[in-house]
Please model this.
Amino acid sequence: MARRLEDLDDLEKLALIPMSYSRLNTYSMCEAMYFYNYIAKEDQVFGAAAKLGNVLHSVLENTLEAGIVIEQDHLPQYKEEFKLQLTEQDPDSLIPEKLRNDGLDMIQQFLDRNEGTSFPIEAKEKAFQIVIGSAYIRGFIDRVDIEGDRVTITDYKSGRKEVSAKNAPNDLQLGLYALAMSLEYPDKEI
Model:
């Protein structure tokens, strides 16, 4: 049973084990990586593709606004933000030109796919924390849109295929996000 952290008493909070989707995913991929990242707390080294993903994530976070219709003439704004994020997040130019061009292509694909659309953005980088058993799970949801009685969760992906509607019920990350939002918005469809 999932509960909100604020619904626990102080003694229950003492027994909680910190957890996140990233921790769970890291452990399932490689126990040694989990140990070095979360137990030994070694500095994480991100490759060029991961850095590009962070850049693209920041571009969408900083340019998308609630109710603004997405148009192709927004491309210069997205490109300028992309350039700014590259400067800030990759000052040593570790992301090769090919990947940078791929990033610009992904931005163009985003604009193509969503042209004429506006999003009812409720929150970006929405923090959440829930308790399942003795696990204290916290994280951030890239974007939460609310329209009427419906809450839509968006998690940006740049390196892997998006989760299909058919596979969404089996996706751990989206499941945790949906569970967290169902506690926050109990009267809405998630």
